[in-house]
Amino acid sequence: MIQKTNSRKKHDLSQLIIPLAALGILIVFNLIRGIAIGDLGFFSITTRINNDGNMVLSGNLISIIDDASALAIIAMGMTLVTAACGGQDISVGAVGAISGAVFVKVLDAFGLDNISVLSIVVGLLAAIGVTIIFTLFNGTLVAVFKIQPMIATLILFSCGRSIAYMITGSATPQLNDKLINAIGKTIPGIPIPTPIFLVVIMALILGLVFKLTNLRLYTQTVGINQGAARLNGINPTAIKLLSFVLLGVCVSLASMIQVCRLNQLSHKTLLDAIEMDAILAVAIGGNSLGGGKFRLAGSILGSYIILMLTNTLNDMSVKPESIKAYKAIVIIIIVIAGSPAVKEKISAFWKKVHNSSRRAVAGR
Fold it and tell me: What is the domain extent for residue 242?
């Protein structure tokens, strides 16, 4: 039992080697660059007074952690779908637009001039319910009809934003309210951005679910070998559908954060292109895109790495149209470094070095 526990801990740590190494490289690069130009402002954390008159933390690191919140939450859900189904949902951005449209529609029904805790809670629950319906549509195509996840989710990827437009029309109402600002930005008296707390809460909820249930084991078993899972009494279809349900909850929460952050709904730009960043966060986090074992902490780290890389390139005055190319190059390197083939060669190399050193010691 002790050996199994130690083995699992070693595997968990090995999964985090790539994201931790990537994060370390970015930190060292910015540190060296800061020393070279005589400006370490990238790492400075200060306080300032925001537009609402509240004192808040400010700085690149705070912005990175804050801006990555929606991506980190979606990456958690994407990790579960990837682990169970061996594929990715590329419709999360479009479904997020639908979720945002439902959230704003409910707030509008209650009255935008009188937004309350009740209207926000009802709006979020309605958004979660509708989003789960759409993610279950994707899940049914994948789990029941055995369609490859990326192909199955291409349908909503193509038409999801049109559905969002049908819900609210061309209206883009302004959500200028203290409660909305408290969700998307900061709570008065608390200098840390609220979205950061929402990431922690979502991670703790999922962690608690994994602790109290066998969901992690079942998800990994289905992702590794569906036949073996079925023989052990696990229903692969139910596990896959459940992973899409949890992804729906994550998408709804991320969508609400972005709507509250921007104080409005934009069908075209809400969570735009976030599906690609979410998939990359999962990959950078050391999780296999082919399914199986996973670690949410790795995906969350992957989200912060993507935002830190973007922020670094912006700080270097790289043109916006060139940032994606630079990101692609760096991400290709990270993903290749974490690929099974490279890991196998590195492992074989270290084993060879270890055996050579043992023989050298024995020869003395």
Answer: 2-333
Phi, psi of 201 (to 5 degrees): -60, -45
In 3D space, the residue among 311, 272, 265, 283 whose CA is nearest the CA of residue 67 turns out to be 311
The β-bridge partners of 49 are: 55
Cβ atoms of residues 21 and 285 within 8 Å: no
Run of H or E including 316: none
Looking up residue 152, the CATH number of its domain turns out to be 1.10.3470
Beta partners for 55? 49
Residue 55 lies in a domain: yes
125 contact partners, CB below 8 Å, separation of at least 6: none
Q: Which residues contact 318 (CB under 8 A, 6 or more apart)?
A: 326
Phi, psi angles (nearest 5°) of residue 314? -65, -40
Neighbouring C-beta atoms of residue 346, cutoff 10 Å? 11
Tally of domains within the chain: 1
248 within domain boundaries: yes
Compute the distance between CA of residue 74 and CA of residue 188 in angstroms, rounded to an integer: 26
- Contact (CB, 8 A) for 316 and 42: no
Give me the tens of pLDDT residue by residue for the chain, a chain 364 residues long: 444 445 455 555 567 887 888 889 899 999 999 898 888 888 888 988 887 778 899 998 999 999 999 999 999 999 999 999 999 999 999 999 999 999 999 999 999 888 999 999 999 999 999 999 999 999 999 999 999 999 999 999 999 999 999 998 877 788 889 999 999 999 988 999 999 999 999 999 999 999 999 999 999 999 999 999 999 999 999 999 999 999 999 999 999 999 999 999 888 889 998 998 999 899 888 888 889 889 999 999 999 999 999 998 888 888 888 888 887 787 787 778 767 777 788 778 878 877 777 777 666 6
Q: What is the DSSP letter of 146?
A: -
Read off the tokens for 116: 């309350």
